[in-house]
Amino acid sequence: MRKLTLITLAALLAGASFAEARPNTLTMSCGVAAATVARAGAIVLSTGDFTYDRFVATKDFCLRTETTEPGIAPTIDSPSCQIGYVCRRHSLHNDDD
Prior knowledge:
- The chain has helices spanning 2-19, 30-40, and strands at residues 42-46, 52-56, 66-75, 78-89.
- The protein is α+β, with helices and mostly antiparallel strands and 97 residues long.
- The protein has one domain.
- A hairpin with a 5-residue loop joins strand 1 (42-46) and strand 2 (52-56).
- The longest helix is centred in the N-terminal third of the chain and has 18 residues, at 2-19.
- 18% of the residues are buried.
């Protein structure tokens, strides 16, 4: 019984650390979030309870077929902070039609 309890406790602790593995922009200032992206080069950040995105420091972290656009995310001190860029596919057609 003691062994089962230890295994269960270990599984719960592993699950808790896995859930916290992705930093959340809502717990950072705008400057800290931008510095996190710049330091990592490319990183997946949570932007809310159920949302996330991959942010990059430069186009070098995107595929050749992708371009960058501003990576905007909410932070503790700003509802729309540019913390880096996001990679997006080049559009072959004009989306304004």
